[in-house]
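Example S7 (C-alpha coordinates).
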Protein backbone atom coordinates (compact mmCIF):
# COMPACT_ATOMS: atom_id res chain seq x y z
CA UNK A 1 0.00 0.00 0.00
CA UNK A 2 2.95 2.27 0.64
CA UNK A 3 6.69 1.98 1.25
CA UNK A 4 9.27 3.87 3.25
CA UNK A 5 12.73 3.34 4.71
CA UNK A 6 12.99 2.12 8.29
CA UNK A 7 15.34 3.86 10.71
CA UNK A 8 16.62 1.92 13.73
CA UNK A 9 18.31 3.17 16.85
CA UNK A 10 19.51 1.17 19.94
CA UNK A 11 20.37 -1.76 17.64
CA UNK A 12 23.78 -2.70 18.99
CA UNK A 13 24.52 -4.88 22.00
CA UNK A 14 23.04 -8.04 23.46
CA UNK A 15 19.34 -8.64 23.93
CA UNK A 16 19.65 -7.81 27.62
CA UNK A 17 21.42 -4.52 26.83
CA UNK A 18 18.80 -3.54 24.25
CA UNK A 19 15.91 -4.35 26.58
CA UNK A 20 17.62 -2.37 29.34
CA UNK A 21 17.92 0.63 26.97
CA UNK A 22 14.25 0.31 25.98
CA UNK A 23 13.08 0.16 29.60
CA UNK A 24 15.23 3.11 30.59
CA UNK A 25 13.80 5.12 27.70
CA UNK A 26 10.18 4.37 28.48
CA UNK A 27 10.64 5.23 32.18
CA UNK A 28 12.22 8.62 31.56
CA UNK A 29 10.63 11.34 33.65
CA UNK A 30 9.21 8.96 36.23
CA UNK A 31 10.04 9.00 39.94
CA UNK A 32 13.45 7.58 40.78
CA UNK A 33 12.09 4.86 43.05
CA UNK A 34 9.70 3.73 40.29
CA UNK A 35 12.53 3.60 37.76
CA UNK A 36 14.72 1.64 40.18
CA UNK A 37 11.92 -0.82 40.86
CA UNK A 38 11.33 -1.48 37.16
CA UNK A 39 15.01 -1.92 36.41
CA UNK A 40 15.25 -4.38 39.30
CA UNK A 41 12.27 -6.28 37.86
CA UNK A 42 14.10 -6.51 34.57
CA UNK A 43 17.23 -7.79 36.31
CA UNK A 44 15.16 -10.45 38.10
CA UNK A 45 13.77 -11.60 34.74
CA UNK A 46 16.94 -11.74 32.67
CA UNK A 47 19.06 -13.13 35.50
CA UNK A 48 22.77 -12.76 36.06
CA UNK A 49 24.92 -12.17 33.02
CA UNK A 50 26.57 -15.39 31.89
CA UNK A 51 24.03 -17.65 33.56
CA UNK A 52 23.31 -20.66 31.33
CA UNK A 53 19.66 -21.39 30.51
CA UNK A 54 17.90 -23.75 28.11
CA UNK A 55 16.46 -22.37 24.87
CA UNK A 56 12.89 -22.79 26.14
CA UNK A 57 13.56 -20.90 29.36
CA UNK A 58 15.60 -18.27 27.54
CA UNK A 59 12.70 -17.61 25.15
CA UNK A 60 10.27 -17.30 28.04
CA UNK A 61 12.57 -14.92 29.86
CA UNK A 62 13.00 -12.82 26.73
CA UNK A 63 9.25 -12.63 26.30
CA UNK A 64 8.80 -11.71 29.95
CA UNK A 65 11.40 -8.95 29.62
CA UNK A 66 9.69 -7.60 26.50
CA UNK A 67 6.30 -7.77 28.24
CA UNK A 68 7.73 -5.60 31.01
CA UNK A 69 8.74 -2.93 28.49
CA UNK A 70 5.48 -3.15 26.58
CA UNK A 71 3.34 -2.86 29.70
CA UNK A 72 5.22 0.29 30.67
CA UNK A 73 4.99 1.94 27.25
CA UNK A 74 2.28 4.50 27.99
CA UNK A 75 3.32 7.14 25.48
CA UNK A 76 5.92 8.00 22.86
CA UNK A 77 8.36 8.95 25.60
CA UNK A 78 10.57 11.94 26.35
CA UNK A 79 13.06 11.84 23.51
CA UNK A 80 14.02 13.35 20.21
CA UNK A 81 12.14 12.26 17.09
CA UNK A 82 15.06 10.00 16.20
CA UNK A 83 14.95 8.38 19.64
CA UNK A 84 11.17 7.92 19.45
CA UNK A 85 11.43 6.29 16.03
CA UNK A 86 14.32 4.09 17.12
CA UNK A 87 12.52 3.03 20.30
CA UNK A 88 9.42 1.82 18.47
CA UNK A 89 11.44 0.24 15.66
CA UNK A 90 13.46 -1.86 18.09
CA UNK A 91 10.46 -2.65 20.30
CA UNK A 92 8.43 -3.83 17.32
CA UNK A 93 11.38 -5.79 15.95
CA UNK A 94 11.71 -7.76 19.19
CA UNK A 95 7.94 -8.33 19.25
CA UNK A 96 7.98 -9.91 15.79
CA UNK A 97 11.10 -11.91 16.68
CA UNK A 98 9.78 -13.37 19.93
CA UNK A 99 6.17 -14.01 18.84
CA UNK A 100 4.65 -15.26 15.58
CA UNK A 101 2.86 -12.44 13.78
CA UNK A 102 -0.29 -14.60 13.87
CA UNK A 103 -0.33 -15.06 17.65
CA UNK A 104 -2.97 -13.44 19.89
CA UNK A 105 -0.18 -11.92 22.00
CA UNK A 106 1.25 -10.10 19.00
CA UNK A 107 -2.16 -8.78 18.00
CA UNK A 108 -2.83 -7.61 21.55
CA UNK A 109 0.51 -5.80 21.83
CA UNK A 110 0.21 -4.20 18.38
CA UNK A 111 -3.25 -2.92 19.29
CA UNK A 112 -1.81 -1.44 22.46
CA UNK A 113 1.08 0.25 20.61
CA UNK A 114 -1.29 1.68 18.01
CA UNK A 115 -3.41 3.09 20.82
CA UNK A 116 -0.34 4.70 22.37
CA UNK A 117 0.64 6.30 19.07
CA UNK A 118 -2.89 7.50 18.36
CA UNK A 119 -3.18 9.13 21.79
CA UNK A 120 0.17 10.93 21.60
CA UNK A 121 0.24 14.72 21.05
CA UNK A 122 -0.66 15.97 17.56
CA UNK A 123 2.58 17.97 17.30
CA UNK A 124 4.41 14.63 17.05
CA UNK A 125 2.58 13.67 13.85
CA UNK A 126 5.67 13.55 11.64
CA UNK A 127 7.43 10.93 13.77
CA UNK A 128 4.17 8.98 14.18
CA UNK A 129 3.88 8.74 10.40
CA UNK A 130 7.39 7.28 10.23
CA UNK A 131 6.86 4.87 13.11
CA UNK A 132 3.61 3.54 11.65
CA UNK A 133 5.03 3.16 8.16
CA UNK A 134 8.08 1.38 9.61
CA UNK A 135 5.79 -0.98 11.52
CA UNK A 136 3.79 -1.66 8.37
CA UNK A 137 6.88 -2.45 6.30
CA UNK A 138 8.36 -4.62 9.05
CA UNK A 139 5.39 -7.00 9.01
CA UNK A 140 5.15 -9.84 6.46
CA UNK A 141 3.09 -9.00 3.36
CA UNK A 142 0.48 -11.58 4.31
CA UNK A 143 0.25 -10.57 7.96
CA UNK A 144 -3.14 -9.58 9.34
CA UNK A 145 -1.30 -6.97 11.43
CA UNK A 146 -0.96 -4.79 8.35
CA UNK A 147 -4.65 -3.91 8.32
CA UNK A 148 -4.88 -2.22 11.76
CA UNK A 149 -1.50 -0.55 11.27
CA UNK A 150 -2.52 0.93 7.91
CA UNK A 151 -5.93 1.89 9.30
CA UNK A 152 -4.25 3.83 12.12
CA UNK A 153 -1.97 5.56 9.62
CA UNK A 154 -4.96 6.65 7.53
CA UNK A 155 -6.80 7.85 10.64
CA UNK A 156 -3.76 9.94 11.53
CA UNK A 157 -3.71 11.46 8.04
CA UNK A 158 -7.43 12.27 8.19
CA UNK A 159 -7.18 13.85 11.65
CA UNK A 160 -4.41 16.12 10.36
CA UNK A 161 -6.26 16.89 7.11
CA UNK A 162 -3.37 15.32 5.17
CA UNK A 163 -5.03 12.41 3.38
CA UNK A 164 -4.12 14.05 0.08
CA UNK A 165 -0.43 13.22 0.63
CA UNK A 166 -1.33 9.51 0.76
CA UNK A 167 -2.92 8.69 -2.61
CA UNK A 168 -5.20 5.67 -2.29
CA UNK A 169 -4.94 3.48 -5.38
CA UNK A 170 -7.88 1.10 -5.71
CA UNK A 171 -5.90 -1.56 -7.65
CA UNK A 172 -3.09 -1.47 -5.07
CA UNK A 173 -5.50 -1.65 -2.14
CA UNK A 174 -7.38 -4.56 -3.67
CA UNK A 175 -4.12 -6.39 -4.44
CA UNK A 176 -2.89 -5.90 -0.86
CA UNK A 177 -6.19 -7.14 0.57
CA UNK A 178 -5.87 -10.32 -1.47
CA UNK A 179 -2.46 -10.96 0.11
CA UNK A 180 -3.39 -10.23 3.73
CA UNK A 181 -4.70 -13.15 5.78
CA UNK A 182 -7.87 -11.61 7.18
CA UNK A 183 -11.51 -12.58 6.83
CA UNK A 184 -13.68 -11.33 3.97
CA UNK A 185 -15.74 -9.44 6.52
CA UNK A 186 -12.67 -7.54 7.73
CA UNK A 187 -11.73 -6.70 4.14
CA UNK A 188 -15.22 -5.33 3.52
CA UNK A 189 -15.05 -3.23 6.70
CA UNK A 190 -11.72 -1.80 5.59
CA UNK A 191 -13.11 -0.84 2.16
CA UNK A 192 -16.06 0.87 3.89
CA UNK A 193 -13.58 2.68 6.13
CA UNK A 194 -11.79 4.04 3.06
CA UNK A 195 -15.10 5.19 1.57
CA UNK A 196 -15.92 7.06 4.77
CA UNK A 197 -12.57 8.82 5.13
CA UNK A 198 -12.53 9.87 1.47
CA UNK A 199 -16.01 11.38 1.83
CA UNK A 200 -14.95 13.04 5.07
CA UNK A 201 -11.89 14.47 3.31
CA UNK A 202 -13.94 15.95 0.49
CA UNK A 203 -13.03 13.38 -2.16
CA UNK A 204 -16.43 11.91 -3.15
CA UNK A 205 -15.31 11.01 -6.67
CA UNK A 206 -12.41 8.90 -5.33
CA UNK A 207 -14.77 7.43 -2.74
CA UNK A 208 -17.10 6.26 -5.52
CA UNK A 209 -14.51 3.81 -6.87
CA UNK A 210 -14.21 2.24 -3.44
CA UNK A 211 -18.00 2.18 -3.04
CA UNK A 212 -18.13 -0.21 -6.00
CA UNK A 213 -15.42 -2.40 -4.47
CA UNK A 214 -17.17 -2.39 -1.08
CA UNK A 215 -20.57 -3.32 -2.54
CA UNK A 216 -19.00 -6.11 -4.57
CA UNK A 217 -17.12 -7.47 -1.53
CA UNK A 218 -20.27 -8.13 0.47
CA UNK A 219 -21.73 -11.65 0.26
CA UNK A 220 -25.33 -12.29 -0.73
CA UNK A 221 -26.18 -13.12 2.89
CA UNK A 222 -24.98 -9.74 4.17
CA UNK A 223 -27.63 -7.37 5.51
CA UNK A 224 -25.44 -4.48 4.38
CA UNK A 225 -25.44 -5.48 0.71
CA UNK A 226 -28.53 -3.58 -0.44
CA UNK A 227 -27.65 -0.40 1.44
CA UNK A 228 -24.15 -0.52 -0.07
CA UNK A 229 -25.67 -0.93 -3.53
CA UNK A 230 -28.13 1.94 -3.04
CA UNK A 231 -25.36 4.19 -1.70
CA UNK A 232 -23.26 3.43 -4.78
CA UNK A 233 -26.18 4.21 -7.11
CA UNK A 234 -26.93 7.49 -5.30
CA UNK A 235 -23.25 8.50 -5.39
CA UNK A 236 -23.03 7.81 -9.13
CA UNK A 237 -26.14 9.89 -9.83
CA UNK A 238 -25.08 12.65 -7.45
CA UNK A 239 -21.52 13.18 -8.70
CA UNK A 240 -21.46 15.61 -11.66
CA UNK A 241 -18.33 14.03 -13.18
CA UNK A 242 -19.49 10.39 -13.22
CA UNK A 243 -21.01 9.41 -16.57
CA UNK A 244 -19.94 5.79 -16.94
CA UNK A 245 -22.73 3.74 -15.33
CA UNK A 246 -21.85 0.42 -16.97
CA UNK A 247 -19.49 -0.86 -14.20
CA UNK A 248 -22.15 -0.01 -11.63
CA UNK A 249 -24.94 -1.73 -13.54
CA UNK A 250 -22.86 -4.90 -13.83
CA UNK A 251 -22.31 -5.27 -10.08
CA UNK A 252 -24.14 -8.30 -8.70
CA UNK A 253 -25.09 -6.30 -5.60
CA UNK A 254 -26.70 -3.62 -7.77
CA UNK A 255 -28.49 -6.13 -9.99
CA UNK A 256 -29.85 -7.77 -6.84
CA UNK A 257 -31.23 -4.38 -5.76
CA UNK A 258 -33.63 -4.17 -8.71
CA UNK A 259 -36.57 -3.64 -6.36
CA UNK A 260 -34.97 -0.62 -4.73
CA UNK A 261 -36.50 2.83 -5.31
CA UNK A 262 -33.31 4.11 -7.01
CA UNK A 263 -32.92 1.26 -9.47
CA UNK A 264 -35.44 2.60 -12.05
CA UNK A 265 -33.64 5.96 -12.03
CA UNK A 266 -30.31 4.24 -12.65
CA UNK A 267 -31.82 2.40 -15.63
CA UNK A 268 -33.02 5.71 -17.05
CA UNK A 269 -29.48 7.09 -17.00
CA UNK A 270 -28.21 3.92 -18.59
CA UNK A 271 -30.81 3.75 -21.36
CA UNK A 272 -33.12 6.77 -21.63
CA UNK A 273 -33.24 10.55 -21.67
CA UNK A 274 -34.56 13.79 -20.26
CA UNK A 275 -38.28 13.03 -20.49
CA UNK A 276 -37.92 9.88 -18.37
CA UNK A 277 -35.83 11.71 -15.73
CA UNK A 278 -38.40 14.49 -15.50
CA UNK A 279 -41.21 11.95 -15.15
CA UNK A 280 -39.36 10.10 -12.37
CA UNK A 281 -38.65 13.37 -10.54
CA UNK A 282 -42.31 14.39 -10.78
CA UNK A 283 -43.53 11.07 -9.41
CA UNK A 284 -40.84 10.36 -6.80
CA UNK A 285 -39.80 13.64 -5.13
CA UNK A 286 -39.28 11.85 -1.79
CA UNK A 287 -36.68 9.56 -3.35
CA UNK A 288 -34.68 12.55 -4.57
CA UNK A 289 -34.85 14.14 -1.11
CA UNK A 290 -33.85 10.95 0.69
CA UNK A 291 -30.70 10.48 -1.39
CA UNK A 292 -29.87 14.19 -1.76
CA UNK A 293 -30.33 14.18 -5.53
CA UNK A 294 -30.68 17.57 -7.16
CA UNK A 295 -33.20 17.57 -10.02
CA UNK A 296 -31.44 20.19 -12.12
CA UNK A 297 -28.13 18.33 -11.80
CA UNK A 298 -29.81 15.07 -12.84
CA UNK A 299 -31.32 16.77 -15.88
CA UNK A 300 -27.95 18.22 -16.84
CA UNK A 301 -26.23 14.84 -16.58
CA UNK A 302 -28.83 12.99 -18.62
CA UNK A 303 -28.71 15.71 -21.32
CA UNK A 304 -24.94 15.28 -21.61
CA UNK A 305 -25.34 11.51 -21.82
CA UNK A 306 -28.04 11.86 -24.48
CA UNK A 307 -25.71 14.23 -26.37
CA UNK A 308 -22.87 11.67 -26.33
CA UNK A 309 -25.21 8.87 -27.44
CA UNK A 310 -26.41 11.01 -30.35
CA UNK A 311 -22.85 12.00 -31.29
CA UNK A 312 -21.77 8.34 -31.27
CA UNK A 313 -23.98 7.80 -34.32
CA UNK A 314 -22.33 10.75 -36.12
CA UNK A 315 -18.64 9.96 -35.65
CA UNK A 316 -16.79 11.23 -38.72
CA UNK A 317 -19.84 13.23 -39.83
CA UNK A 318 -21.53 16.57 -39.22
CA UNK A 319 -24.15 16.59 -36.46
CA UNK A 320 -26.68 19.37 -37.14
CA UNK A 321 -27.42 21.88 -34.38
CA UNK A 322 -31.13 21.26 -34.94
CA UNK A 323 -30.72 17.57 -34.12
CA UNK A 324 -28.82 18.40 -30.92
CA UNK A 325 -31.45 20.93 -29.85
CA UNK A 326 -34.26 18.45 -30.46
CA UNK A 327 -32.58 15.62 -28.53
CA UNK A 328 -31.61 17.80 -25.56
CA UNK A 329 -34.90 19.77 -25.63
CA UNK A 330 -33.10 23.10 -25.63
CA UNK A 331 -33.26 26.29 -27.63
CA UNK A 332 -30.99 26.23 -30.74
CA UNK A 333 -29.13 29.23 -29.33
CA UNK A 334 -27.91 27.03 -26.45
CA UNK A 335 -26.40 24.28 -28.62
CA UNK A 336 -22.88 25.70 -28.63
CA UNK A 337 -22.87 26.07 -24.85
CA UNK A 338 -23.95 22.44 -24.41
CA UNK A 339 -21.40 21.36 -27.02
CA UNK A 340 -18.64 22.99 -25.00
CA UNK A 341 -19.96 21.33 -21.82
CA UNK A 342 -20.02 17.85 -23.35
CA UNK A 343 -16.46 18.29 -24.65
CA UNK A 344 -15.26 19.47 -21.22
CA UNK A 345 -16.92 16.41 -19.67
CA UNK A 346 -14.73 14.23 -21.90
CA UNK A 347 -17.71 12.60 -23.60
CA UNK A 348 -17.33 14.04 -27.10
CA UNK A 349 -14.59 15.54 -29.25
CA UNK A 350 -15.29 17.57 -32.35
CA UNK A 351 -15.27 20.94 -34.08
CA UNK A 352 -18.12 23.44 -34.11
CA UNK A 353 -19.02 25.27 -37.31
CA UNK A 354 -21.27 28.30 -37.10
CA UNK A 355 -21.27 28.47 -40.88
CA UNK A 356 -22.83 25.03 -41.35
CA UNK A 357 -24.56 25.07 -37.95
CA UNK A 358 -23.13 21.67 -37.14
CA UNK A 359 -20.68 19.78 -34.94
CA UNK A 360 -18.08 17.72 -36.76
CA UNK A 361 -17.77 14.70 -34.43
CA UNK A 362 -14.35 13.07 -34.25
CA UNK A 363 -14.92 10.98 -31.10
CA UNK A 364 -17.78 10.12 -28.77
CA UNK A 365 -18.31 7.85 -25.79
CA UNK A 366 -21.05 5.26 -25.91
CA UNK A 367 -23.32 5.19 -22.86
CA UNK A 368 -23.05 1.41 -22.95
CA UNK A 369 -21.09 -0.95 -25.17
CA UNK A 370 -23.21 -3.89 -26.21
CA UNK A 371 -23.95 -5.72 -29.45
CA UNK A 372 -25.30 -2.63 -31.24
CA UNK A 373 -22.19 -0.59 -30.38
CA UNK A 374 -19.85 -3.43 -31.40
CA UNK A 375 -21.61 -3.70 -34.74
CA UNK A 376 -21.26 0.06 -35.30
CA UNK A 377 -17.57 -0.13 -34.45
CA UNK A 378 -17.09 -3.07 -36.83
CA UNK A 379 -18.77 -1.12 -39.63
CA UNK A 380 -16.47 1.87 -39.08
CA UNK A 381 -13.37 -0.31 -38.99
CA UNK A 382 -14.35 -2.03 -42.24
CA UNK A 383 -14.93 1.36 -43.84
CA UNK A 384 -11.55 2.54 -42.62
CA UNK A 385 -9.89 -0.65 -43.86
CA UNK A 386 -11.44 -0.30 -47.31
CA UNK A 387 -10.45 3.35 -47.51
CA UNK A 388 -6.90 2.58 -46.43
CA UNK A 389 -6.59 -0.16 -49.05
CA UNK A 390 -7.70 2.33 -51.70
CA UNK A 391 -5.14 4.87 -50.52
CA UNK A 392 -2.36 2.28 -50.59
CA UNK A 393 -3.28 1.41 -54.15
CA UNK A 394 -3.22 5.08 -55.18
CA UNK A 395 0.17 5.60 -53.50
CA UNK A 396 1.61 2.53 -55.21
CA UNK A 397 0.36 3.70 -58.62
CA UNK A 398 1.71 7.21 -58.02
CA UNK A 399 5.10 5.85 -57.02
CA UNK A 400 5.27 3.76 -60.17
CA UNK A 401 4.54 6.88 -62.23
CA UNK A 402 6.92 8.96 -60.12
CA UNK A 403 4.31 11.60 -59.28
CA UNK A 404 5.10 13.31 -55.92
CA UNK A 405 1.86 15.30 -56.09
CA UNK A 406 -0.30 12.19 -56.27
CA UNK A 407 1.62 10.62 -53.37
CA UNK A 408 1.07 13.70 -51.20
CA UNK A 409 -2.62 13.76 -52.09
CA UNK A 410 -2.92 10.06 -51.23
CA UNK A 411 -1.32 10.60 -47.80
CA UNK A 412 -3.71 13.50 -47.15
CA UNK A 413 -6.66 11.29 -48.10
CA UNK A 414 -5.40 8.56 -45.78
CA UNK A 415 -5.37 10.98 -42.82
CA UNK A 416 -8.93 12.03 -43.60
CA UNK A 417 -10.00 8.40 -43.83
CA UNK A 418 -8.56 7.65 -40.38
CA UNK A 419 -10.43 10.57 -38.81
CA UNK A 420 -13.77 9.66 -40.33
CA UNK A 421 -13.53 5.93 -39.88
CA UNK A 422 -12.30 5.64 -36.32
CA UNK A 423 -14.64 5.69 -33.29
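Recovered sequence:
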Amino acid sequence: MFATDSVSVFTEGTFEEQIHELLEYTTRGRAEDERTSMLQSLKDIVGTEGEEQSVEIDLERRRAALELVLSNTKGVGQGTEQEIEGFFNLLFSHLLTLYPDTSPETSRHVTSLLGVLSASPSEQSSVKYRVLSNMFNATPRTSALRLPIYTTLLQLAVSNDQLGVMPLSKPEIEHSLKEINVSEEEKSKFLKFIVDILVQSGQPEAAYEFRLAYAQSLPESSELRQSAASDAIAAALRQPTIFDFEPLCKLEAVVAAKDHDLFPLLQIFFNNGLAEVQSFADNHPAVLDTYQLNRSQLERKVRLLAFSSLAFDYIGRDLPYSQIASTLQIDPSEVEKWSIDVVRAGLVSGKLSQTTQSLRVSRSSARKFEREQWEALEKRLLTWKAGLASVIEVVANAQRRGSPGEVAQAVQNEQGTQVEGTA
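Notes on this example. DSSP finds 21 helices and three strands in the chain.
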